[in-house]
Amino acid sequence: MALHFELVTPAKLVRSENVHMVVVPGAEGEFGVLEGHAPFMSTIRDGAVQVYKTEGAA
């Protein structure tokens, strides 16, 4: 199974696809999200969002 990932700005939907994992630059450090992750909200900082379409491949 896959995680459904959407990257949204106030103006538009930038990206919407099924992925293996997403790594996000959080205010307190990077964090990864996999399928089945508990819902949560976090403050993020400027930086690259890494999207892994399959296990081990960005």
Overview of the molecule:
By secondary structure, the protein is mainly beta. It has a single domain, classed as ATP Synthase, domain 1, CATH 2.60.15.10. It has no helices and five strands. The protein has strands spanning 3-8, 13-19, 21-26, 29-34, 50-52. The strands form two sheets. It has a three-stranded antiparallel β-sheet with strand order 4-3-5, with no helix packed on it. The protein has a two-stranded antiparallel ribbon with strand order 1-2. A hairpin with a 4-residue loop joins strand 1 (3-8) and strand 2. The mean pLDDT is 90.
- Looking at CATH, the homologous superfamily is F0F1 ATP synthase delta/epsilon subunit, N-terminal
For the largest beta sheet, what order do the strands appear in spatially?
4-3-5
Distance between the termini: 17 Å
Structural class: mainly beta
Number of helices: 0
Total individual domains: 1
SSE arrangement, N to C? EEEEE
Q: Estimate the global geometry from the Cα principal axes.
A: globular
Roughly what fraction of the amino acids lie in strands?
over 45%
Mean pLDDT value: 90
Find the count of extended strands (DSSP E, 2+ residues).
5
Cα-atom Rg, whole angstroms?
A: 11 Å
CATH fold description: ATP Synthase, domain 1
Biggest β-sheet description: 3 strands, antiparallel
User: What is the correct CATH architecture?
Assistant: Sandwich
Percent helix: under 10%
Task: State the main characteristics.
two-stranded antiparallel sheet; mainly beta; 58 residues; globular; 48% strand
Q: Secondary-structure blueprint of this entry?
A:
Elements: E1 3-8, E2 13-19, E3 21-26, E4 29-34, E5 50-52
Antiparallel strand pairs: 1-2, 3-4, 3-5
